[in-house]
Design goal:
single chain; alpha/beta; 10 strands; about 45% helix; about 10% strand; globular
Length: about 375
């Protein structure tokens, strides 16, 4: 099937669901608890409308934006996602090449399948390193040193995972990293031979940033020791841009601004952490008001279309990030599918801008 089968994000998701093992699809697609948090955020996005305006010359429209003073060709980037190579071999580098082509930031996860050094090189510098604080922090600060040495200028500290959320879909499949194969997993892989053979040929995905002496990462290890002192240590150590991701509370946003971070990212971790958390889209406008107009605010979680991007910007985001739908596109049709979905999202933004009578992202 050609990549032209992807005409919207849901097309990519539908194809990915067919082609991925159940365990892998549910790892990517699933959310915490009963997944009401994901539904609540989607409902909030759907409830917002855009105001159509008529008889305005919108024949020339620009999608360019800026982030930390750098020009980007689009007002959206790629959120950090762990173990992307589960969607297809080489997925991480597909995302990196995409970031390079459009000069947009690529979030490189602590638990990426590809070493951070290779990612930023392939992305031609358009990469931010996402950091988890884990255990006593010794390994965490080793990763900070590596990121600095690799040339990263922006560090994204994720703070909404003091403990990994309970995701029933993962638990039902016995999802673990590295994989532990039992009869159930073996059957799952056998029924999806295209994915299984390709993965076998390229070697099973691994958490590449931990193949270093003195650090054995455990996905289930508590991250609960991170506190405001931890943030202060990181701020002292990191002279580049420091973003704190996973903010849903206006008071926390103000405290982070006071603590000297350079930006915050409003996010519910794709609703993968706390099922009862407020919809991040609903929290966005209050957080924008709390930190003022000039402080950078980014957004991710639940985005499915170009119109979602415009809604997020209208609510106060300076820049937004797509997550799991990128993996769906890769799982569906590889790098061609990723480009197809990227083009769809860009077209959706441009068409919606024409409908609401604006010619630039800033005018939204």
């Amino acid at each position: 099937m050609a990549s032209s089968a992807i005409h919207c994000a849901e097309d990519a998701r539908r194809l990915a669901r067919r082609r991925l093992p159940w365990m892998v699809f549910d790892y990517i697609d699933g959310s915490a608890g009963a997944e009401m948090g994901a539904a609540r955020n989607r409902a909030a996005l759907d409830a917002m409308t855009l105001r159509p305006r008529i008889l305005r010359d919108v024949s020339k429209r620009s999608l360019v934006s800026t982030v930390f003073g750098k020009a980007t060709k689009l007002p959206f980037g790629i959120a950090p996602m762990g173990m992307c190579n589960l969607s297809a071999p080489g997925a991480d580098l597909m995302l990196a090449r995409l970031a390079a082509r459009y000069s947009v930031p690529l979030g490189v996860s602590t638990v990426a399948s590809t070493p951070m050094e290779e990612m930023i090189e392939t992305a031609q510098g358009n990469a931010w390193f996402q950091l988890y604080f884990s255990g006593d922090g010794a390994g965490t600060f080793k990763l900070v040193d590596r990121a600095k040495a690799a040339g990263y200028e922006t560090l994204v500290l994720t703070v909404d995972v003091p403990e990994v959320g309970r995701r029933p879909r993962e638990l039902r499949h016995g999802f673990r990293m590295p994989f532990r194969l039992g009869p159930k997993q073996f059957l799952d892989f056998a029924l999806h031979p295209r994915w299984s053979l390709s993965t076998l040929l390229h070697g099973k995905p691994q958490m590449a940033n931990f193949l270093m002496n003195g650090y054995a990462f455990d996905r289930t290890e508590s991250r609960a020791k991170a506190d405001w002192e931890t943030l202060a240590r990181l701020r002292d150590k990191w002279s580049g841009n420091l973003v704190v991701k996973g903010v849903l509370d206006a008071e926390d946003a103000v405290a982070l601004k006071t603590a000297g971070v350079d930006a915050i990212q409003v996010s519910s971790h794709g609703s993968r952490q706390l099922d009862s958390a407020p919809a991040p889209f609903s929290a966005l406008s209050d957080i924008r008001k709390s930190v003022g107009d000039d402080f950078p605010v980014f957004y991710d979680s639940g985005l499915r279309s170009g119109e979602d991007v415009l809604k997020s910007i209208a609510q106060g985001a300076d820049f937004v990030f797509f997550g799991r739908i990128m993996q769906f596109a890769i799982a569906a049709e590889g790098e061609a599918g990723l480009q197809q979905l990227w083009d769809v999202l860009s077209d959706e933004i441009s068409i919606a801008m024409a409908q609401i009578g604006v010619t630039s992202v800033a005018a939204v």
